[in-house]
Specification:
Length: 604
C-alpha cells in the first residue's frame, strides 16, 4: 500500500519531470556533439585530451541518469522498458561495464583489447566509446523527431530542411583543422563538397584523395550515406525501433519513397535499411577482393594495412550504392592504376552495385526477397508488378542503349582493348552516366554525339525511390506513354490491364517542365559567369549537377565563385526534387470549385 501511495505521489510530477528530463537529454546530446567535434576536429595537447576523457564519463552518466529518470516517472514502467528495448539494452551494458570497471580497476573492453594485443588499444577503446555516445545521441534525435507532429509545417518543408541542415553541418565539420591536410579550406569549397556529398553528386572542387585527412574522408562518407537515404529516414527508422512514429513522419517517408500509403511507408522503411546494410556489406566484401594488388601498374597498392584496405572497400561500396561517385583516388577510376586491363573485376563489381542502387529499394525487395522468389517459382504464370516492371525494363533499355552507344561512337578509343574489356568499359560508363559519377574515360575527349547521349541519360536518371537522381524512369515512361495516347486519340493510359491516373500524368509533365525550365535558367546563368566556356561543356556540367551524377568535363575545379553557387543550388534542387521544393515553398492551396465556361486554345 505504501508503494502505491509513493507511486501516486511521484505520478503527480511526472509531466513536469518528463519535460525537464527531455530538455536535459537534448542538452546532453548537444554537449556530446560539441565535445566530439572538439575532440576530432582540433589538435589537442595531453592535458586537453585527459579532460575530454573525464567529460566522456560525465556525459555517459548524464545519459544514464536521464534514462533512469524517464523510467522512474513513467506511468507503466514495464511497458516503458518494452517500448525502449534498444535503449534499455545499451544502458544495461553501460551499467555492467561501469560496475565491472569499479571492481577490476580497468574498463573491461579496454582490458580485452589489451589482452588480445589490439594496438593501439586505448585509442580503439576511445573510438568505440565515441561511437557508443553517438548512438545514444542518434536515439535522442529519434525521440526528438517524434515531436515533428507538433510542428505546424508541411512535411515537404521538414524534408527539404533536413538536407539543408545536413549540408550546413557537413560544411562546418569539413572546415575543422583536423579534416584537411593543410588544416584549412575555404567556406565555399567546404560548402560545395558538403553539398555534393549530401546530395550524392560527386562533383569536387578539391582532390578528395589528397586534400582531406582520414577524418575528413569519414565525414564525407557519412554525408553521402545520410544523404543517399535521407536523414529523416534514419531518424524515423530509429524512432520505429522505439515505437514512436507519428503520422507526419510517415507522411514524409511516404513522399520520399513514393509509397502509396502511410502503412506501406512505415513497413518499407525497415526493409530499406536492411537492404542498404546487406548490399553495402556484400559490396564491400566484393570490392575488398577485387583489389588485385599483383596487377597494380607500379607494383604497389595505395593501402599498406588491412585496415586501410577495408576502409577503401567500404568507402567505395557505399559511394557506389548511394550513387555518390566519390573516390579515394586522384582522378577516380580513371586513374591509371584502375585501367580496365588491370582491374577488370573492380569495374564490374562497382557497376553492379551502382545499378542496384539505381533500381530503387522497392524493386530490389520485389525481385530478390526470398518470399517473392518462392512465390514466382510456385506461380510462374504470375506477372511482375507494374511498379517493378517499368523501372526494371527502363533500366535495362538505358543500360543496353548506353553501352551500345559507347561501343559504336567511341570505337576509336575502345579499339585498343579486347572485346571483353571494351564491353565492360562501355557498360561501366553507361551505368555511371545515369547517376553515379565514377568514370574510366576522360569525358572531355568524348565525341559530341556521345556527350548528347550522356546528357540524355543523366537527365532521365534512375528509378524512383532509389539513391539516384534525374527526373526518374517512371516520369519519362509516363510522358512517353501519354504522348502515344494523345497521338492515338485514347483517353486513358492502359498498361497491363491497369490505367494510370491523370493525376500522375499531370505530375510527370509538371516535373518535366520544372526540370527543363530550371536547367535552362541555370545554363543561362552559367554562360554569364563562365563566358569563356563552350556551351556544351556548361550544359553537361549543369545537367550532371541537377541529376546528381557527378561527371565533369574537367570544369568543376575551374569554376568561379558565382558558378560554384549555381552548381550547389542545382545539386540541392536535384536531390530534394523540384516538385518537393516547389511544394515546400508554396503557400496554402486555393480552392477551385467554381465552374467556368469551357474555352479552347490552338495547339501546334
Amino acid at each position: 500500500m505504501g508503494r502505491s501511495h509513493l507511486d501516486s505521489f511521484f505520478l503527480q510530477y511526472s509531466e513536469i519531470a518528463s519535460y525537464l528530463l527531455r530538455w536535459i537529454s537534448y542538452a546532453t546530446s548537444i554537449c556530446t556533439v560539441l565535445l566530439l567535434t572538439y575532440r576530432y576536429g582540433f589538435p589537442l595537447n595531453q592535458q586537453e585530451y585527459q579532460q575530454i576523457q573525464i567529460m566522456y564519463k560525465l556525459i555517459l552518466l548524464l545519459f544514464l541518469l536521464v534514462f533512469l529518470g524517464r523510467w522512474f516517472f513513467s506511468i507503466n514502467r514495464q511497458l516503458f522498458l518494452q517500448q525502449s528495448r534498444l535503449e534499455a539494452t545499451l544502458y544495461g551494458l553501460l551499467i555492467i561495464h561501469t560496475v565491472a570497471e569499479q571492481l577490476i580497476g580497468i574498463p573491461p573492453l579496454l582490458y580485452y583489447l589489451l589482452l588480445f594485443s589490439l594496438e593501439p588499444a586505448r585509442l580503439i577503446y576511445e573510438h568505440l566509446t565515441a561511437i557508443f555516445m553517438i548512438l545514444l545521441t542518434v536515439l535522442d534525435l529519434a525521440r526528438f523527431s517524434a515531436t515533428l507532429a507538433e510542428i505546424q509545417v508541411k512535411p515537404s518543408v521538414i524534408f527539404v530542411g533536413s538536407f539543408a541542415l545536413l549540408i550546413l553541418a557537413g560544411t562546418i565539420l569539413l572546415m575543422l583543422p583536423e579534416m584537411t591536410v593543410n588544416g584549412e579550406i575555404s567556406f565555399l569549397d567546404a560548402l560545395f563538397t558538403a553539398a555534393s556529398a549530401s546530395c550524392v553528386t560527386g562533383l569536387t572542387v578539391v582532390d578528395t584523395a589528397t586534400f582531406f585527412t582520414l577524418k575528413g574522408k569519414i565525414v564525407i562518407m557519412l554525408l553521402f550515406q545520410l544523404g543517399g537515404l535521407g536523414v529523416v529516414s534514419f531518424a524515423t527508422f530509429f524512432a520505429t525501433l522505439m515505437g514512436g512514429v507519428g503520422i507526419k513522419q510517415q507522411s514524409m517517408i511516404q513522399s520520399h519513397l513514393s509509397a502509396e500509403s502511410l502503412t506501406e511507408a512505415k513497413a518499407a522503411l525497415r526493409k530499406i535499411v536492411l537492404i542498404t546494410v546487406i548490399v553495402e556489406v556484400l559490396g564491400s566484401i566484393a570490392i575488398y577482393y577485387a583489389w588485385d594488388q599483383e596487377r597494380w601498374t607500379d607494383g604497389r597498392a595505395p593501402f599498406t594495412t588491412t585496415g586501410e584496405r577495408i576502409f577503401y572497400s567500404v568507402f567505395h561500396a557505399i559511394s557506389a550504392f548511394c550513387n555518390a561517385g566519390f573516390s579515394l583516388f586522384t582522378d577516380g577510376y580513371y586513374n591509371r592504376q584502375f585501367h580496365i586491363c588491370h582491374m577488370f573485376g573492380l569495374h564490374f563489381v562497382t557497376a553492379v552495385i551502382i545499378v542496384l542502387g539505381g533500381l530503387g529499394f522497392n524493386v530490389i525487395e520485389d525481385i530478390f526477397s526470398p518470399a517473392n522468389i518462392r512465390e514466382r517459382l510456385a506461380k510462374p504464370w504470375k506477372k511482375m508488378e507494374l511498379s517493378t516492371k517499368i523501372p526494371l525494363l527502363g533500366t535495362g533499355l538505358l543500360l543496353v542503349g548506353g553501352t551500345l552507344a559507347f561501343m559504336i561512337l567511341e570505337y576509336d578509343q575502345l579499339r585498343v582493348l579486347n572485346i571483353g574489356q571494351a564491353l565492360i568499359t562501355a557498360f561501366f560508363q553507361s551505368a555511371v552516366t545515369r547517376t553515379a559519377g565514377f568514370n574510366t574515360m576522360d569525358f572531355s575527349t568524348l565525341h559530341n554525339p556521345t556527350l548528347i547521349i550522356c546528357i540524355f541519360l543523366m537527365f532521365i536518371g534512375t528509378a524512383p525511390g532509389s539513391t539516384g537522381g534525374g527526373i526518374k524512369i517512371n516520369t519519362f515512361a509516363i510522358v512517353i506513354l501519354s504522348a502515344f495516347r494523345n497521338i492515338r486519340g485514347e483517353k486513358r493510359i492502359i498498361v497491363q490491364h491497369r490505367f494510370i491516373p491523370n493525376e500522375l500524368v499531370n505530375r510527370a509533365f509538371t516535373l518535366l517542365l520544372f526540370a527543363f525550365t530550371y536547367n535552362s535558367l541555370a545554363v543561362l546563368l552559367l554562360t554569364i559567369t563562365e563566358p569563356s566556356q563552350p556551351i556544351h561543356v556548361l550544359v553537361f556540367e549543369q545537367i550532371s549537377a541537377f541529376a546528381t551524377v557527378g561527371l565533369s568535363m574537367n570544369l568543376t575545379p575551374l569554376l568561379s565563385a558565382s558558378s560554384k553557387v549555381i552548381i550547389i543550388v542545382s545539386m540541392f534542387v536535384g536531390r530534394v526534387g523540384p516538385l518537393t521544393l516547389a511544394i515546400a515553398l508554396s503557400g496554402m492551396p486555393k480552392t477551385n470549385l467554381l465552374q467556368y465556361p469551357r474555352t479552347y486554345l490552338m495547339i501546334g
